[in-house]
Backbone:
C-alpha cells in the first residue's frame, strides 16, 4: 500500500470499514511504541538510545542486559513504569471523555467538566486522609467517588424531556464547584507532612510506585473494553435515544454500562495521577476531526492517541527544567490548546 | 426490509471490528504484566558491609557501615551534614540547599517535592536522607522500591533537631564531631532558656505569608522556638502547622511583637492598630533560621530571644 493510500485511509471521515479501522489502529499502535521508546530514551540522565533497546529486549527475553546497573535501573525500573503509567492514564482519560461525549451528545462533556474527576479526587483524598494504610484504598475510593458523582450529576440534571443534556452539563458544573471546594477544605485542614502528600498528588504525578501499575492497567483495560463493546449502540444513541430504541438498542442498559465504565476509567486515572485536565476533552475531538465520529473508531483510537499524548506531555514535564519536574497538567493544557485550535481551524 | 439488511451487514462488520480491537487491547495486557513483575525485583545491599539502623519514623533501614555517597533531600539535612564535616561525602543536594555556600557546588537532584529519582540512581547514592519537614512519602517509596536505603528524620522540636544531629552523626560514622556539635548547641539553648526563664512573656504574631495572612500553629518549629525564646505565639492553639489567620483575630489579640519576613509592609499598615506596630516592635528575621530544622535553628533561637528580651541580651551585642 502506498503512503498516499495509507494517509487517505486514515484521514477520511467517510463510513468506517474494517480495513480502515485496522490500518488506523495499526499505525497508531506503531506511533505509540515509537513514542514510548523515545520517551524512555530521554530524561535528566543520559542513557543512550541503543541501551534503551538492549534493556527492553533483556526485560522481555529475561536475559541480563550488557549495561551498567544504574542504567538498567533508570531505564527498566524508573522510566519504563512511568511511561507505561502515562499510556494507561492517557488512554483512560481519553476514552472516558469519548464515552461521556457520546452518551450526553455534547462536545463539552469531559470527566473534568462534569465533576467526575473532582468526585474521584475527593474519594482518593478521603482515602489518603482516613484510610492511608489500606493498600488499594485510593483507587477504590476514587472509583466510588466517580460513580456517586455521576449518579448525583445525573439526578440533578435529569429533565422531563430528552433535552436534559444541557441541564446535565450545568449540574456537572455545579457539582464540580461544590466538590472542588470540599477538596480544598480537606487539603487545608490536614496537618503538615500529610498535607504535602495530598498536594503533591493533587497537582498530578506519574512517578509513583510501579506496584500500582498492574491493578490500574487491569481496571483501565476492563473500562476501555466495556465502552468499546457498546460503541455501536453509542453510535445509534448519538442520533437520538428514541431512534436507537426503535433500532433495538436497550438505551438504559447501555447508558448504565458506559457510565460505570467511564467512571471506572476516571477513577483509575485520578487515583494514580491526580486530576490531569484537557486529555478527556481534546483527544476524542481530535480523533473525530481526523477520522470521523464512528465510536468503533473513536474509542480505541482515543485510547492510543491519549496514551501518546500523555506520554509526550510527561516527557516534557520531566525534562524541560531537569532535574526539577513541572506539573503535568500545565503541559497537557499548553500543548493541548494550540493543537486543538489548529485542528478545529483546519477542518472547518 | 432495506433497513434490516443494512443492520445485519453492519452487525457483521461490527463483530469483525470488535475482534480486531480486542486483539490489540488484550495483547497489551501481558506486556504490562511482565514489566511490572520484573520491575519489582531490585538489587539488595550486600549484608557484609552494611548494618541495620532504625530511623526517626521507626523504620528499619539497611545502610553501609560508612556511607560515601550521601544524597540530602532537605536544606536542613545538607546543613547538618556540612556541620558534621562530611561535606565531601555529599553526592547530591536539592536545588534549595544554599547553605553553607559549598553546598551549591554539589549536584542538584531537583526540588524537595519532586526530586529526580533517576539522577539519584545515576549518582550511585548509597544513602538518601530525607526529612518529614520537607518531603512527601511518594518520592521515598520509589527509592525504597529501587533498593536505595532511605533514612527519614522527623524532628518536631528544637530538642528533636539536636537529637536528629546526634543520630545522623551515628548513621554516617561521624559520632565524635556530632557529640561536639550537639554539646555546643545544647549549651547555647540552655543559656537562652535560663536567661529568659524569669522574664515576662510577650505575645507574638509570626507572619509567614501576607496574602493571605499565614502564621505558625501548635505543631510548628517556630512555635517551639517562640516558647523557648521566652514569648508566646497568639496562634499557639491552631491545629494546622501553618494555618491561614484572620486579621481581625490579630487586632483583637493585640500582639506585642510582630515577626515578619522581608516585604509585607502593606499588611503592617493594616495592622497599625496593634500594640506591636504602635511600640515599633515589628522585626524582620531570616526565615531560614526559623524554618530549617538544622544547626542554625539555634542561631534563630538566639536572635528571637534577643528581639523578645533586648534588656537581657544587651551586653552580648
Residues:
Amino acid at each position: 500500500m502506498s503512503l498516499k493510500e495509507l494517509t487517505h485511509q486514515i484521514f477520511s471521515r467517510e463510513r468506517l470499514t474494517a480495513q480502515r479501522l485496522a490500518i488506523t489502529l495499526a499505525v497508531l499502535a506503531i506511533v505509540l511504541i515509537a513514542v514510548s521508546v523515545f520517551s524512555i530514551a530521554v530524561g535528566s540522565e543520559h542513557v543512550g538510545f541503543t541501551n534503551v533497546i538492549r534493556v527492553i529486549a533483556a526485560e522481555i527475553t529475561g536475559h541480563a542486559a550488557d549495561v551498567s546497573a544504574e542504567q538498567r535501573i533508570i531505564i527498566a525500573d524508573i522510566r519504563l513504569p512511568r511511561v507505561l503509567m502515562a499510556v494507561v492514564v492517557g488512554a483512560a482519560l481519553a476514552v472516558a471523555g469519548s464515552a461521556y461525549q457520546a452518551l450526553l451528545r455534547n462536545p463539552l462533556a469531559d470527566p473534568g467538566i462534569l465533576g467526575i474527576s473532582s468526585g474521584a479526587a475527593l474519594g482518593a483524598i478521603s482515602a489518603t486522609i482516613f484510610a492511608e494504610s489500606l493498600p488499594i484504598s485510593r483507587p477504590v475510593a476514587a472509583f466510588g467517588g466517580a460513580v456517586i458523582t455521576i449518579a448525583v450529576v445525573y439526578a440533578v440534571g435529569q429533565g422531563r424531556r430528552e433535552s436534559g443534556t444541557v441541564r446535565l452539563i450545568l449540574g456537572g458544573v455545579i457539582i464540580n464547584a461544590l466538590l472542588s471546594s470540599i477538596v480544598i477544605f480537606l487539603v487545608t485542614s490536614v496537618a503538615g507532612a500529610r498535607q504535602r502528600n495530598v498536594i503533591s498528588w493533587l497537582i498530578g504525578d506519574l512517578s509513583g510506585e510501579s506496584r500500582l501499575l498492574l491493578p490500574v492497567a487491569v481496571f483501565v483495560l476492563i473500562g476501555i473494553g466495556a465502552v468499546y463493546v457498546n460503541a455501536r449502540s453509542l453510535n445509534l444513541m448519538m442520533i437520538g435515544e428514541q431512534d436507537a430504541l426503535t433500532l433495538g438498542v436497550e438505551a438504559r442498559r447501555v447508558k448504565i454500562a458506559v457510565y460505570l465504565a467511564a467512571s471506572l476509567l476516571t477513577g483509575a486515572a485520578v487515583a494514580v495521577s491526580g486530576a490531569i485536565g484537557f486529555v478527556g476533552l481534546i483527544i476524542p475531538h481530535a480523533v473525530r476531526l481526523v477520522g470521523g465520529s464512528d465510536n468503533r473508531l473513536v474509542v480505541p483510537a482515543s485510547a492510543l492517541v491519549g496514551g501518546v499524548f500523555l506520554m509526550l506531555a510527561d516527557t516534557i514535564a520531566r525534562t524541560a527544567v531537569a532535574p526539577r519536574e513541572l506539573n503535568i497538567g500545565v503541559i497537557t493544557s499548553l500543548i493541548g490548546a494550540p493543537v486543538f485550535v489548529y485542528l478545529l481551524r483546519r477542518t472547518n | 426490509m432495506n433497513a434490516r439488511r443494512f443492520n445485519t451487514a453492519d452487525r457483521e462488520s461490527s463483530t469483525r471490528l470488535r475482534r480486531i480491537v480486542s486483539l490489540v487491547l488484550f495483547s497489551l495486557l501481558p506486556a504490562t504484566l511482565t514489566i511490572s513483575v520484573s520491575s519489582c525485583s531490585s538489587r539488595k545491599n550486600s549484608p557484609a558491609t552494611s548494618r541495620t539502623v532504625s530511623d526517626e519514623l521507626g523504620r528499619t533501614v539497611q545502610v553501609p557501615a560508612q556511607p560515601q555517597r550521601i544524597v540530602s533531600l532537605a536544606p536542613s539535612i545538607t546543613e547538618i551534614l556540612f556541620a558534621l564535616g562530611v561535606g565531601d561525602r555529599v553526592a547530591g543536594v536539592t536545588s534549595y540547599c544554599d547553605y553553607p555556600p559549598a553546598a551549591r557546588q554539589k549536584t542538584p537532584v531537583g526540588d524537595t517535592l519532586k526530586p529526580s529519582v533517576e539522577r539519584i540512581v545515576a549518582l550511585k547514592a548509597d544513602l538518601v536522607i530525607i526529612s518529614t519537614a520537607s518531603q512527601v512519602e511518594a518520592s521515598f517509596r520509589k527509592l525504597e522500591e529501587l533498593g536505595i536505603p532511605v533514612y527519614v528524620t522527623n524532628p518536631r522540636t528544637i530538642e528533636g533537631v539536636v537529637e536528629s544531629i546526634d543520630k545522623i552523626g551515628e548513621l554516617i560514622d561521624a559520632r565524635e564531631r556530632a557529640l561536639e556539635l550537639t554539646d555546643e548547641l545544647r549549651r547555647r539553648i540552655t543559656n537562652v532558656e535560663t536567661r529568659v526563664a524569669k522574664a515576662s512573656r510577650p505575645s507574638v504574631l509570626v507572619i509567614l505569608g501576607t496574602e493571605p495572612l499565614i502564621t505558625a500553629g501548635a505543631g510548628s518549629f517556630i512555635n517551639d522556638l517562640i516558647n523557648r525564646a521566652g514569648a508566646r505565639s497568639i496562634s499557639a492553639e491552631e491545629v494546622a502547622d501553618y494555618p491561614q489567620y484572620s486579621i481581625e483575630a490579630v487586632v483583637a489579640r493585640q500582639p506585642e511583637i510582630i515577626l515578619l519576613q522581608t516585604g509585607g509592609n502593606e499588611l503592617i499598615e493594616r495592622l497599625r492598630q496593634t500594640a506591636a506596630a504602635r511600640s515599633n516592635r515589628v522585626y524582620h528575621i531570616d526565615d531560614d533560621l526559623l524554618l530549617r530544622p538544622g544547626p542554625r535553628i539555634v542561631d534563630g533561637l538566639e536572635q528571637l530571644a534577643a528581639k523578645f528580651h533586648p534588656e537581657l541580651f544587651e551586653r552580648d551585642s
Notes: Chain A touches chain B through 60 residues (CB under 8 Å).
